[in-house]
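A further point concerns the way the authors explain their paired sequence and structure data. Since the whole study asks how a given chain folds, the encoding of that fold should be made plain. A single example would do more here than another paragraph of explanation. An entry of this sort, consisting of the sequence and the corresponding backbone structure tokens, reads as follows:

_____
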Amino acid sequence: MMMARKQDVRIPTYNISVVGLSGTEKEKGQCGIGKSCLCNRFVRPSADEFHLDHTSVLSTSDFGGRVVNNDHFLYWGEVSRSLEDCVECKMHIVEQTEFIDDQTFQPHRSTALQPYIKRAAATKLASAEKLMYFCTDQLGLEQDFEQKQMPDGKLLVDGFLLGIDVSRGMNRNFDDQLKFVSNLYNQLAKTKKPIVVVLTKCDEGVERYIRDAHTFALSKKNLQVVETSARSNVNVDLAFSTLVQLIDKSRGKTKIIPYFEALKQQSQQIATAKDKYEWLVSRIVKNHNENWLSVSRKMQASPEYQDYVYLEGTQKAKKLFLQHIHRLKHEHIERRRKLYLAALPLAFEALIPNLDEIDHLSCIKAKKLLETKSEFLKWFVVLEETPWDATNHIDNMENERIPFDLMDTVPAEQLYEAHLEKLRNERKRVEMRRAFKENLETSPFITPGKPWEEARSFIMNEDFYQWLEESVYMDIYGKHQKQIIDKAKEEFQELLLEYSELFYELELDAKPSKEKMGVIQDVLGEEQRFKALQKLQAERDALILKHIHFVYHPTKETCPSCPACVDAKIEHLISSRFIRPSDRNQKNSLSDPNIDRINLVILGKDGLARELANEIRALCTNDDKYVIDGKMYELSLRPIEGNVRLPVNSFQTPTFQPHGCLCLYNSKESLSYVVESIEKSRESTLGRRDNHLVHLPLTLILVNKRGDTSGETLHSLIQQGQQIASKLQCVFLDPASAGAAWWLTPVIPALLEAKAGGSLEVRSETSLANVVKPCTKKVQKLAGRGGRHL
């Protein structure tokens, strides 16, 4: 039952007639009052279906066509709406007008020969087969448009919208229009049908006209007034819904919104739709080469596109798309321009780096000069069409060369001027550096070792600060200081050599007392070469100590001129020109895995170390090979007789890592030297990663003079040696008559074992005696030498 009742409910239908000033140009002016636009916007609200131009001047054929149908009214069609009370209704819209003959410019003759005011107030309209009107273009081309007839060819009007144009119409007097409207209202009132006054073209409204129109409405039984703009689509629906509410009292009363408030709401709606549409375009369109046809197809299903096109139309949507494309293209061109402008200084540096060549050239002349350079085409491309940013070159991403017509632009000219200025500044900075160096060289205030803070006030001026940073001057000053310090040191070395007699009476260990150092400084103090190092006293004292060490140990390593020592240079020259047989054998031995290498330190005072080293080398082959029991060893010896804390007497060097040490002594003094040297060497490596010197295998050996094999002195030295060996946890070997280097036979295998990770263990005296027996005659011969021997 409920379902049947719902099916019987019919949608209410209302027939509305839109009326207002009409007639010839003399009566209504050069344009109408906006009745057609009001109907158009209500019936077909989409922006693409809205037309501003609706002419009332027609040919006889158009007037007799099925759309006009020889009538002075238009049927706009049927509209379905859900109004404010959410109840759907249908409306048939009719516009009462007056069509003018394009030949006579007088109203066309029709079946109803009545003046407009009487005809417009008609409530019964009839026109058989009359077609729905769309736009002026439809007239004469009815077959190209939808053909929908007025239902049953007749309509009964339920209410009227009375239009008043409040804009400043051309050739129209508003007071005359208001008089016409007043007469028209009087005729409409006789029908007893609801009437709503509609103010049209409020987007161009004149305040006085609007005020007068409201006054008129108040004087006519308080007519309701709706301010509209069909062009802006403001309050159009409100006008029709207000009339429907008056026709059907059962509907809720419509709230009338003032024009500017409604315009604000409409503008916000359009702005929101525009923002969403622009976001959609920016998300879809990333390339400036996209076209509207393909992009619009992609967007058709998107609500953002549909909403904006509905409100503003396809043309505005296309316009925003083209603006986005233009923006993308502009950004693309600007990116390319920035790349070209960034490369332009590099091109200038490569092609015109010489200031003398371009110092007085303008940018135009420099452009001609660039074309003559051999690498011109490496940096530039000459285009047939210009400017470059209006050609297809903007999309030629593979060609990174600079369009040559870019040189005609202001930024390029500015970059050229900047290039000139840079070259001039660089030249000026070079001149300032040179002037600063000359100032340093000629200034009497700049002495070796003087800090920059003290020297700055004497040598700096405003020009220096203007052209260079202080860090640059500090760098130049530092280099200058190094030069004058090196020169002062060289001159001081010459001074020390000139006063060699001062160093003759020093102790053998090259440790001058404070008194002696004072004497040396007093003697040299008046010399200018001594005073030159006044601010470098520590280095001056170090040079004195180094010189003293050289006096007592004159080697190329201790030479003050090292590495410019003549001995070292001659040795390097000979080694670079000639290859010794031992070098060839050494190369071969490097590839022989059967040869063990032993690095051996020989520690002894008063020539003991050097004499033993020479005797060992005498037992070796020409390439420093030593044979024991048929096994070949490669020996590298480092005799040490001085202070082990000096680098020249260090146990290890970057190229020499010792595997063991032979410690020689023949007196209490030499034994004390051995103990002190071992302790100093161990102390120097404490806390370091490479502290293997602490565990370096040691062998303590007593050396005595020939024939002195017994006696209280020898016995005392043996006892002391044994005590020291126990303290140092090393092997002690008694003196014997076997020869100079016979200890090597038991020591070398023990060193190899310790090198592999074991501890040093040398065989006992009994076993040593057994080893000595098969020694070679050469060893026995060495044992019988005069002087010191083992």
User: Anything to note?
Assistant: The CA atoms of residues 698 and 730 lie 5 Å apart.
